[in-house]
Design brief:
With 138 residues, the protein is mainly beta. It has one helix at residues 2-17; strands at 20-28, 36-45, 51-58, 61-72, 75-81, 84-86, 90-94, 100-106, 118-122, 127-130, 134-136. Strands 1, 2, 4, 5, 7, 8 and 11 form a seven-stranded mixed beta sheet that branches. The chain is globular and about 45 Å long.
Length: 138
């Protein structure tokens, strides 16, 4: 019985994941002494219901947070958010100076040869792996 329930859970997560498309993932090379980095990408919701990105994890950092920016008194501030909503049949662009995935306490600097892997967890029980993340020079 447990095997059947597990199989149903895995199948339902896969069915939801087909409604999510990740594209254009990239990060920047980091200075040698950098403790943090960021990943930017496009999340497309092909489904009929809004979904929320709730969390992320990475192979190259100890902790990962979802971040956005806000403007106050002509200053831009980065801040952690609990979720990022992707409206039904639309796309959310994570880009510099806007929403992004923050990699905290990097295990080593990000170089052109770094292989970043992310796991993105959504409120529809989907977990999407992102393995092709381009590393750009600044």
């Amino acid at each position: 019985m447990k095997k059947i329930l597990f199989f149903i859970f895995i199948c339902s997560a896969f069915l939801h994941a087909k409604d999510i498309r990740i594209k254009d993932a990239f990060s920047y090379e980091s200075p040698t002494n950098a403790k943090n980095g960021a990943v930017f990408l496009s999340i497309e919701n092909l489904g009929d219901k809004d979904i929320n990105l709730l969390s992320a994890s990475s192979n190259i950092s100890d902790h990962v947070e979802l971040h956005t920016h806000s403007k106050e008194d002509n200053h831009t501030h980065m801040m952690k958010v609990d979720k990022m909503t992707i409206k039904a049949k639309s796309k959310l662009e994570l880009k510099p100076k806007h929403e992004h995935i923050m990699l905290l306490n990097l295990k080593k600097p990000i170089t052109k040869d770094t292989k970043i892997e992310l796991k993105l967890a959504f409120d529809n029980q989907s977990i999407v792996s992102v393995k092709k993340i381009e590393i750009k020079s600044r």
